[in-house]
Design a protein that fits this description.
Structural class: alpha/beta
Shape: globular
Helix content: 40-55%
Radius of gyration: 20 Å
Distance between the termini: 28 Å
Bound molecules: 5'-O-[(R)-(carboxyoxy)(hydroxy)phosphoryl]adenosine, zinc ion
Strand content: 15-25%
Number of helices: 11
Order of helices and strands: EEEHHEHEHEEEEEHHHHEHEHH
């Protein structure tokens, strides 16, 4: 089966072509630079960029995959959750392609796509950003569900933070989530307080490398709470007060690195400990993680250490597939079609508030 997938839920316009678990092409056009000027994603600008970019991005994906539109067997797109005006661009365009080709269409939950993204493995060197032509078949990113194990999955992005129990493929239950800010939002907002550009997550990651994570003691919200829920707004407020009371720190490059490392340590400790605890409580021996914040090196390192200590298998989404992309949408859609799950009607609407359950 050859499937075209489209993702436009937030600020990345992406199109991918997948075939039998292989990602033949995955083109991502990021709008980060556009929104950085405003300190966050501006929904109307995001929608206009998607309109501008969707056709060229899709044409590039098809060309890179060496696939003609007429050779597609199915089409998929992110249906929600996300920004309504952004979602509608990719979702309606994908429905139109399916209509024109007379092929099946699948609407995908963005978080469910992140959830299964750790099962897509990218051989090194990554062909995702390189030349498609000449890339050997075995180097293409490939989903491998033959190794599937029941797992606890941490989804950490700019909009959501959740712990999910995945009992079997396509059979999952959300155990907990954030009751206020998401982990990525906490990185971005605390970074903004330090004067870092949006999105601050990657910059905090970079600066924290030269800092001391024990320099300042920030709260670990809900760490000892029995639930699988998270809360990060208190941590953000505590950073705000700390900077208000010690503004001189921001004039010292070394101290900014310490601040980044300390904030990062607080976020990472909560994410790792709660994930491991959920795995133990549910008797699973595999942990997976996905979403933009899974790019964070301290999080990857601490999850790896904790899983090694517990004897758990760890599957981290490939960095290129942590942030939003259509490859994960296509891989999940193909699995749903293979499992003969229902198709989405072509007159179905977007679901901006679609909650993963
Ligand atoms: O999954 P994603 O691309 O978009 C959403 O669905 O939200 O995640 C974006 C988030 C942003 O908050 C960004 O700051 C964060 O992921 N992020 C990071 C890193 N790379 C991206 N946070 C911490 N460390 C990183 N290296
Ligand atoms: Zn996402």
């Amino acid at each position: 089966m050859t499937l075209l997938a489209i993702e436009t839920s937030c600020d990345e316009t992406s199109a991918a072509v997948v075939r039998e678990g292989k990602v033949l092409a995955n083109i991502v056009s990021s709008q980060i630079k556009l929104h950085a000027e405003y300190g966050g994603v501006v929904p109307e600008l995001a929608a206009r960029e998607h309109l501008r970019n969707l056709i060229p991005v899709t044409q590039t994906a098809l060309a890179e995959a060496g696939v003609q539109a007429g050779q597609l067997d199915a089409v998929a797109a992110t249906q929600g959750p996300g920004l309504p005006n952004a979602l509608i661009v990719g979702f309606k365009a994908a429905q139109a392609v399916a209509f024109a080709l007379g092929k099946p269409f699948v609407g995908i939950n963005h978080h469910e796509a992140h959830l299964y993204s750790p099962w897509i493995q990218t051989a090194s060197p990554s062909p995702l950003k390189g030349e498609r032509a000449g890339v050997r078949d075995e180097l293409l990113p490939c989903a491998d569900f033959s190794k599937f194990q029941p797992n606890i999955s941490l989804i950490v992005s700019g909009g959501h933070t959740m712990i999910v129990l995945v009992e079997s493929e396509l059979n999952h239950r959300v155990l907990g989530g954030t009751i206020d800010d998401a982990a990525g939002e906490c990185f971005d907002k605390t970074g903004k307080l330090m004067g870092l550009a949006y999105p601050a997550g990657p910059e905090i990651d970079r600066l924290a490398e030269q800092g001391n994570p024990a320099a300042f003691d920030f709260p670990r919200p809900l760490l000892h709470d029995a639930s699988d829920d998270f809360s990060f707004s208190g941590l953000k407020t505590s950073v705000r007060y700390f900077i208000r009371d010690h503004p001189e720190l921001l004039d010292d490059a070394e101290k900014i690195c310490d601040l980044c490392a300390s904030v990062q340590a607080a976020i990472v400790e909560v994410l790792v400990k709660k994930t491991i605890r959920a795995a133990k409580r549910n008797g699973v021996r595999c942990v997976t993680a996905s979403g933009g914040v899974t790019c964070n090196r301290a999080l990857r390192h601490e999850l790896a250490r904790a899983c090694e200590r517990e004897g758990f298998t760890l599957r981290l989404a490939d960095k290129a597939l942590c942030t939003d992309n259509a490859a994960m949408v296509g891989i999940l859609a193909e699995r749903k079609l293979l499992h003969q799950l229902p198709l989405s009607p072509l007159d179905e609407e977007i679901k901006p508030g679609w909650v993963l359950t």
